[in-house]
Amino acid sequence: MSTNKKFVDIAQQLKPEINKTTVFPKRLIEVVGDKDVFQGWRINNLEEIENLELKSFGKNESFVIDFGDHQVGYINLSIKAVGSPPDAPLRLKLIFGEMPCEIAESFDNYDGRLSRSWLQDELVNIDVLPCEIQLPRRYSFRYLKIIVIDTSKKYKVAFSNIYITSVTSADVSKIEQLEDTIQEDLRVMDNISIKTLRDCMQSVFEDGPKRDRRLWIGDLRLQALANYHTFKNYNLVKRCLYLFGGMTLKSGHIGACVFIEPQPLVDDIYLYDYSLFFVASLYDYYTATNDMDTLDKLWPVALKQLELALERLNEKGIVKDDPSWWCFIDWHNELNKQASAQAVLIYCLKRGLYLAKELKQNKVIDFIKYKIDFVSKAAIEHLWISEKGFFISGENAQISWASQIWMVLAEVFSKNENANLLERLFIDPPAIKMNTPYMYHHFVDALFLCGMKEKALEQMRGYWGEMVKDGADCFWESYNPEDKFFSPYGSNVINSYCHAWSCTPAYFIRKFLR
């Protein structure tokens, strides 16, 4: 890792104040199986939360409470013995769930690809009753299941004063109300988007407060776009940019993500597209703020990402596709990333050109102009198949949604030609589809870019709108309307159900529909 201490110090000086709110649960519930609802689990109301204090629980008994909507914070609860004096420790199991599946399905059966430790459950042993406890770990959840694992035969326990200290760096007072002309379903989408972004805004823009609780640059770019139209916390974006710019990999590449605690540390993951998105993120920040000082300081890091990315071109001007690299684009095991990466490079070169012009760096301007022309012509000559009307990717000439969408965003063709390309996706849809809100964001963005407003709204309603129908109170990390158990990690219980890259309906609504 290469560290610019000055940049990291600037980032640390921008560390935000965390706002705290006390939130109490709303009701007692039960989770029951129902194959006709999302992931097969339905919530039934049982009774008001006030009745909990009238109940007592012994060994192997449990209850589930609902906080009404998604929360991020620290759980507090009071417990007392009922019956004889407690003659053995109380052992509890607490299970936290963003969605009903996490409450209903046994974590003992988990066989996903990510660590079991991300699943939110805790064993707590209590020696002295009565007591008040606050668990030290921050949780991300709506539902809480409490199981009495053991007491003794002589006593039971009762619970009261359960609440969460909710935390975020977002300031909800900055949110402007939407106009009355915005349709109700879009207003619901906007509210859920803002809630998603709010819960991901902590000391940095986290990708997800349940998992991974890190600063990922792909998520940051989309969060920042939504933030500019909602919370307007420009300093939080600035902090994140300085963290990435201040801790690069030895190669000079921007790392894909940054750990925040105990001290900022760049991860050793390098993604071709994510490193380039530092340029796009800096461009978005500058156009939102006109912060020339930050642009001037971070531009050398951004320019370095363009130079490094260009080194991956082959003699034809095409991004080399071999086992030595990793490019994200979307969670899809069959997706070839070459054409999308080519388009991301063009997209970021064009944003780098704008920044170089703002800085009046004439030699750099000429260099980037030449590269844009070279890489764009290469994409058309070697990846565009006119008789098919699509771009291909990889040695097997794969045609995917992602390749076409990213070439539209890169504006390799004219606006009309790009609109025709997007129309062909609806007429002759490629088999390699999109799996995440991250990729759907770029699809909707491409539709708006081409002036296809009604198609863009149709996709928002057909994707995020379907999440709403399936019970989302925050938007999710992954969602396939045709496979509602889809997970890139092999198990839906490990999925993040409040995830940063899914927050952008608010961006689209507030930028394009007002």
TrEMBL record:
<dbReference type="InterPro" id="IPR049164">
    <property type="entry name" value="Glyco_hydro_78_N"/>
</dbReference>
<dbReference type="Pfam" id="PF17389">
    <property type="entry name" value="Bac_rhamnosid6H"/>
</dbReference>
<dbReference type="InterPro" id="IPR008928">
    <property type="entry name" value="6-hairpin_glycosidase_sf"/>
</dbReference>
<dbReference type="GO" id="GO:0005975">
    <property type="term" value="P:carbohydrate metabolic process"/>
</dbReference>
<feature type="domain" description="Glycosyl hydrolase family 78 alpha-rhamnosidase N-terminal">
    <location>
        <begin position="25"/>
        <end position="165"/>
    </location>
</feature>
<dbReference type="InterPro" id="IPR012341">
    <property type="entry name" value="6hp_glycosidase-like_sf"/>
</dbReference>
<dbReference type="InterPro" id="IPR035396">
    <property type="entry name" value="Bac_rhamnosid6H"/>
</dbReference>
<protein>
    <submittedName>
        <fullName>Bacterial alpha-L-rhamnosidase</fullName>
    </submittedName>
</protein>
<dbReference type="Pfam" id="PF21104">
    <property type="entry name" value="Glyco_hydro_78_N"/>
</dbReference>
<feature type="domain" description="Alpha-L-rhamnosidase six-hairpin glycosidase">
    <location>
        <begin position="186"/>
        <end position="510"/>
    </location>
</feature>
